[in-house]
Amino acid sequence: MNDDQMHSERYNKGMATRRKVLGDPHVDQALAAATDDDRPFQELITEAAWGHVWSRPTLTYRERSLVTIALLAALGHDGEVAMHVRATANTGATREDVYEALLHVAIYAGVPAANHAIKIAKQAFEQMDADKAV
Fold first, then answer.
1. Which of 23, 41, 73, 103 is the most buried (most CB within 10 A)?
2. Do residues 69 and 101 lie in contact, with contact meaning Cβ atoms separated by under 8 Å?
3. pLDDT tens digits along 68-99
4. Alpha carbon 101 to its chain's center
5. The domain 59-134 belongs to what CATH superfamily?
6. Where are the domains of the chain?
7. How far apart are CA 62 and CA 94, in angstroms?
8. N-term to C-term CA, the chain
């Protein structure tokens, strides 16, 4: 039995969505780093976040990307903000979109949260530009 047969249909759908949004290198690295202790967490986020929420047809990947970045920024989840800013390369969200979403964070979640997230976004975009230049 291969891995796809061992997992639910929602997990498999979630894995496909996760790979589309975050990219194969990121997902491969996360899965390779999984241990027996955190493998259930990887399965949970693949099935619930990616297979159930991100795979729904109502919002586009671009729209989900912007909502996610704004929520993560508001909550101060810096590493996740950076990861989802990098994922905009796959979701169709533009830099302008990201900065517009972060303006909303400033108003609804506070200027310090938005200010910090803007710094993270700038760094992520700079790294993305540097990676393209290589």
1. 73
2. yes
3. 999 999 999 999 999 999 999 999 999 999 99
4. 15
5. AhpD-like (1.20.1290.10)
6. 1-58, 59-134
7. 9
8. 41
